[in-house]
């Protein structure tokens, strides 16, 4: 397993994260456990801040909180000077409860409800990214009713097919997101927004997909979007000043992944921007980017305890852990690949090829196929790396598994940021109606 951030193998041969021995973490907090490497998250935030916010002069980096949304995470993002992308009332609520400054929040979503939009207006979020005509008129009416003007970006679908898993592509024309650029829908949307009394169009937004390695996809996006902004100016006389390029920067999960450097990403965007603006004689707009995965992905490790082991001679050895698709649905959803190490015997030589399965009642509940590990025993600890993004945030209670705890590990200290769920948490919203109050068997 490749080590990330502060991960290291200590003198006991144990995996250490944030100066904490993961064997001790398992004892103290139990497993499964999401361990977040706080220093690593901060370092990535700083690299983004330096290369974009400072490197591009007029730019803002906003963290896509869908990747990992908790109050503690919002605090870190705020401390590091980044803005925040939220995509639901729940993410907005989390941010506001963490005292995240509303004016640095961007509100996304392809089907925001009236309640969510009203909540955003009331809180005074910085930008609402309008995705469709229904939302546009809803927002205009709500803003009017609240005697406000809503600052918006228009989400457009630029017709770019980024090279990534088709389920996480979003820039192609056949997409549920945004106004299509190529068939004139985006123009109609813009005209309508410009004539809406309670909307102020600040700029445009596009997001071409996620886990993208080819930086050329982003320069292509810049060229398409600047051309669009120049066309808008020519056609309507409106000079839009903000261009939000979305997120999507890819990260390392397993061997074969070759992500680019954040600094090169910034350079590519800057060069493409300068060239395109020069070509169209268009003033350089403010650039906003929305990384999610690349801020938290490699900073997360999930720690499991190994339980049952099933060997089918000549075929496969299944090693089962005390979690699975309920805490990490990505392998089942996207055939995502992960690496892992035995946290309590991290320095030992590999001795066998096994496959890691979860404890859910699904054959598809596989975390890792065909991984080499030392001879595994029940009771060993398995650490799966790069689980910081879209694991906790997409976790479920399938099979009524309580969600794991999440901790920040930093400087030899570990703090719980999300408590482990217990069985009574699972029943928190269960209700037994009066007519089911009686235990005896129903009469037939
Ligand atoms: C609009 C928008 N912005 C930002 C992101 C974050 O993407 P990523 O986690 O790939 O950086 C997403 C998710 O793909 C998104 O839909
Ligand atoms: N959740 C997805 C990506 C979608 C990101 C949100 N638009 C993943 O884990 O890769």
UniProtKB/TrEMBL annotation:
The keyword Lyase applies. One of its GO terms (biological process) is lysine biosynthetic process via diaminopimelate. Keywords: Amino-acid biosynthesis, Decarboxylase, Lyase, Lysine biosynthesis, Pyridoxal phosphate. The modification N6-(pyridoxal phosphate)lysine is found at residue 66. It is an enzyme of class 4 (lyase). It comes from the Bacteria. Transmembrane segments: none annotated. Its cofactor is pyridoxal 5'-phosphate. The keyword Flavoprotein does not apply. Its EC number is 4.1.1.20. Pfam families: Orn_Arg_deC_N. Specifically catalyzes the decarboxylation of meso-diaminopimelate (meso-DAP) to L-lysine. This is Diaminopimelate decarboxylase. It comes from Desulfosporosinus acidiphilus (strain DSM 22704 / JCM 16185 / SJ4). The lineage of its organism: Bacteria, Bacillati, Bacillota, Clostridia, Eubacteriales. The gene is lysA.
């Amino acid at each position: 397993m490749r080590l990330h951030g502060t991960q290291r193998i200590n003198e006991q041969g144990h995996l250490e994260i944030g100066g904490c021995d993961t064997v001790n973490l398992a004892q103290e907090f139990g497993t499964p456990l999401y361990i977040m490497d706080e220093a690593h998250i901060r370092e990535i935030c700083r690299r983004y801040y330096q290369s974009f916010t400072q490197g591009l002069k007029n730019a803002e980096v906003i963290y896509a909180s869908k990747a990992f949304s908790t109050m503690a995470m919002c605090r870190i993002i705020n401390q590091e000077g980044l803005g925040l992308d939220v995509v639901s009332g729940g993410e907005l609520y989390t941010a506001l409860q963490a005292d995240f400054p509303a004016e640095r929040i961007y509100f996304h979503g392809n089907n925001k409800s009236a309640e969510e939009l009203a909540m955003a207006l009331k809180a005074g979020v910085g930008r609402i990214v309008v995705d469709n005509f229904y939302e546009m008129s809803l927002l205009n009416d709500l803003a009017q009713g609240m005697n406000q003007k809503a600052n918006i970006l228009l989400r457009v679908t630029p017709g770019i097919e980024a090279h990534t898993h088709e389920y996480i592509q979003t820039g192609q024309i056949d997409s549920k997101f945004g106004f299509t650029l190529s068939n004139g829908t985006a123009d109609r949307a813009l005209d309508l927004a410009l004539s809406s009394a309670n909307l102020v169009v600040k700029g445009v937004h596009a997001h071409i997909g996620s886990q993208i390695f080819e930086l050329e996809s982003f320069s292509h996006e810049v060229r398409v979007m600047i051309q669009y902004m120049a066309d808008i100016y020519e056609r309507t006389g409106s000079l839009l000043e903000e261009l939000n390029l979305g997120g999507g920067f890819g990260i390392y999960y397993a061997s074969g992944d070759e992500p680019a450097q954040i600094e090169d990403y910034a350079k590519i965007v800057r060069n493409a921007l300068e060239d395109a603006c020069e070509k169209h004689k268009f003033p350089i707009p403010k650039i906003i980017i929305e990384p999610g995965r690349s801020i938290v992905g490699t900073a997360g490790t999930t720690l499991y305890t190994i339980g049952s082991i099933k060997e089918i001679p000549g075929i496969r050895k299944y090693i089962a852990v005390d979690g699975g698709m309920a805490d990490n649905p990505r392998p089942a959803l996207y055939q995502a690949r992960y690496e892992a190490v035995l946290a309590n015997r991290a320095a030992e030589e590999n001795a066998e090829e096994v496959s890691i399965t979860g404890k859910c009642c699904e054959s598809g509940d596989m975390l890792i196929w065909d991984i080499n590990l030392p001879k595994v025993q029940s009771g060993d600890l398995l650490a799966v790396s790069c689980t910081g993004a879209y694991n906790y945030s997409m976790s479920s209670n399938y099979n009524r598994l309580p969600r794991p705890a999440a901790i920040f590990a930093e400087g030899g200290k570990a703090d719980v940021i999300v408590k482990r769920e217990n069985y009574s948490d699972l029943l928190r919203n269960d209700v037994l109606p009066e007519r089911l109050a009686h235990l005896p068997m129903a009469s037939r």
